[in-house]
């Protein structure tokens, strides 16, 4: 059996992502945080799966991504690893897992590769992270960069605001992108920046760019799976396209189950287990005797 690009059984690697950029083939990426979802996403032929720290909000109900821990991220990464056969698997380094020194960063990043089975890790931040990217590369850990609206900087940014609107900010973003690119990142997430700026960065860097709220000229697109499925509890951002209403499906199914139990229509006889005929007959005899004794 021959295995070719486009075949959903083809294993996507970091080289595949660079090839796709060269061939102008859009790269698809979605987040996934658990076995079942990751399996469906992988089997649908998505190129890259990100165990994003957005799971702090989507899975764990935190207000932002800052509280999620290494252990929580590891737990979800391992579950996703068990499901993913085809996609390139990236794990997000949570806040404070790479901010407190190189030794700490390397140890945490290595855990994602060694124990979590990730093929790359993602860190937020620009040119100041370039030396760290070098150190991670030395430790054989591929790195995905993430610049623009970086949710772990929510307090520094003063909220979730589109970045890169002034000339000064655009120049900084270009410096960030090129520094990370030179340091050897395998992909670069561009989040919440004007499409014109994302297009300039995409043309400038060798690494494939993966946009989220960064317009159509990136080499690929990523969205949060809960957003595209309608599994969120707040209004979606402008860039989100909803492809399903799983939230409504869950509510309808749960209400139907509740009503069936209350009305005694679930479970039916067909949904019940039965004793073998002989045991049933014996039980009937025993019950008859008990009733007779009571009289
Ligand atoms: O955590 C996440 O889901 C992300 C994507 C939005 C890129 O970082």
Describe the structure concisely for a colleague.
The chain is α/β, with parallel strands linked by helices and 295 residues long.
Protein architecture, described:
The chain is of the alpha/beta class and 295 residues long. The protein has one domain: Phosphoenolpyruvate-binding domains (TIM Barrel). The chain is built from twelve helices and eight strands. An eight-stranded parallel barrel has the order 1-2-3-4-5-6-7-8, surrounded by seven helices. The radius of gyration is 25 Å and the shape is elongated. The chain starts with 13 loop residues before the first helix and ends with a helix. The model has no long low-confidence stretch (mean pLDDT 96). The chain binds 3-methyl-2-oxobutanoic acid (KIV). 3-methyl-2-oxobutanoic acid binds next to β6.
* Helix percentage range: 40-55%
- CATH topology, which one? TIM Barrel
List unreliable stretches of 5+ residues: none
Structural class: alpha/beta
Task: State the main characteristics.
295 residues, alpha/beta, TIM Barrel, 8-stranded parallel barrel, 12 helices, 8 strands, 44% helix, 13% strand, elongated, binds 3-methyl-2-oxobutanoic acid
